[in-house]
Amino acid sequence: MSNAEEKIPPQLSEYEAVVVGGRVVLDAIPGAIYVRDHEGFLVSNAEAARLWGRRPSLQAPRDRFAAEVVGKPITILIPTERQDEEPQILARICRGDHIEHYETVRRRKDGSQIDVSLTVSPLKNSKGQIVGASKIARDITERRQEERPWQLLINELNHRVENTLATVQSLASQTFRGERDSQTFERFESRLVALARAHDLLTQESWEGADIGAILNRSFQAVCPEPEARLQASGPPCRLKPKLALSQSMAFHELGTNAVKHGALSTDSGKIAVHRNLGGSERDRRLSLTWGELGGPAVATPEKRGFGSRLLEQALARELDAQAALSFTTLGIVFTLDAPLPDINSGKRNEYI
Length: 353
Description:
The chain is of the alpha+beta class. It is 40% helix and 24% strand. The protein has helices at 3-6, 14-21, 23-28, 46-51, 85-94, 141-175, 183-204, 212-223, 227-230, 242-261, 307-320; strands at 32-36, 41-44, 99-107, 113-124, 130-139, 210-211, 231-234, 239-240, 271-280, 285-294, 323-329, 332-340.
């Protein structure tokens, strides 16, 4: 019998024994680890006691959080305004889900609050039944404090951008006075709205990037009232840096607007298929994207290229150092893009330029 096994009191449950047997290992982990069942706390490590402002115990494992918390609900650590989080977490755990990097706020013994990142996993017995949950809480208060000045700067930038876009729209309205029903003004205004929509999405992500699927969905919903029935999107998840996200949003807007007026979305049964793929090496990743129309009217190559075509084939390629091609086939327009995909976690925090 190992030393760890000798120290496990016989009254402990099966999953308590597993945790307590590795207590030395748990105490060496730089994160607050605690195990609970439906009734409350069972066992934890020394860092959990420190993080929550409790006094660690050197006695029985059930006393690691001291008698004041053993058997009590986890909600004693949760601020009043966040009490609805725990039922949602437990519902996911009961389904067998693992939760990683869930950032939230928790309450210490003295009532002060700390920012934490939670990792929660279901705890199963030898029969595979979920009988509890293990949690790892990491203190991210210092990181959040460092981020606050940055967030203030981002908020100020967003405010100024919104004001600038509103000013541009107002100037355009005055410039096109008497021509506001013209197609020229309509196209200009729709592009301005598309740009504002992309800015809103990046604002929600603190200008750290955006998922290409979210960009596509937002752009498509703006031009099509039934996106679920008319859009077929496939490919792996992919986060884009702000510069690429803005350019891709404008590209989707031009393609979607054209499809509504002249392509597949101008018919009752036409659809758009968008497929993306990630390739290249780890140091030189690339995004390959294809936009194709299905079930639309036959199209012919226009004699004169408009702003949308120039944006897609020239400006986009130049801006992103990419290869872009626009084809007019009997099935409809096909747009292909092959662009370098910088690591979103490397370089400057806000890689707009």
